[in-house]
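Board work, copied verbatim: dCTP deaminase
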Amino acid sequence: MTAEHALKDIEKLAANVGAAAVPGILADHQIRWLAQNEGMIDPFVEKQTREGVISYGLSSYGYDARCSDDFMIFTNIDNAIVDPKNFSNQSFVERKTDVCVIPPNSFVLTRTVEYFRIPKDVLVVCLGKSTYARCGLIVNVTPLEPGWEGHVTLEISNTTPLPAKIYANEGLCQFLFFKGSDACEVSYADRSGKYMGQRGVTLPRL
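↓ predict structure ↓
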C-alpha cells in the first residue's frame, strides 16, 4: 500500500467516525470532521491557542469558544424589576470594546465569535473556563439543541464585590458535544424555535 492510499484510508475512516460515531461525547477528531465538513463551528480553530491569551480552539473532548467585542452591560438605572416576559432593552448599556468591565454583582451579555450549526443527532452543553471561574466570573448558557444554529448569546455574572474584566476574542467557555443514540424526531429547526438563526447578542424573547 502506498503512502497516498494509506492517507486516503485514514481520511475515509475519519469521515466515517465523524458522521456515524457511537453515542457519547465527541472527541477532537470527530468535532474537527463535523466543523470542516458540515460547518458545525465557523470560524473553526483546529488547535488550542494559548500564548498570551485565555485559551481557545479545539481541545481533547470539546471546543473552547471566544467571546466577541459586542457587550451589553446590565444596569438597574431605568428599571426597578427584571421581568423575563417583558424585558426592556433599557436594562442594558451597549459597548463595543476589547476589554469589558462588569460592575460588582452584575452581569453582561455577549456572544461567541463562532457561529454554530448543530447536527440533528447532537446536543451541546457549555461550561465556563476555569480561569474566569477562579476569579468569581460565572458563564451561563443553556444547551444548544439538535438542529439549532446561530451565534451563542453568553451571560457572564460577576459574583464578586469588585469590578471584573473579560477579554474579547479570547476563550470564555467550553462546549461539549454529545451524540445521541439516534437523530431526534423533531429538532429545534423543525419546531421553528424562537432563537433559531440568531446573530449578534440576542435579548430574551417570549
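The domain at 20-181 is CATH 2.70.40.10 (Deoxyuridine 5'-Triphosphate Nucleotidohydrolase; Chain A).
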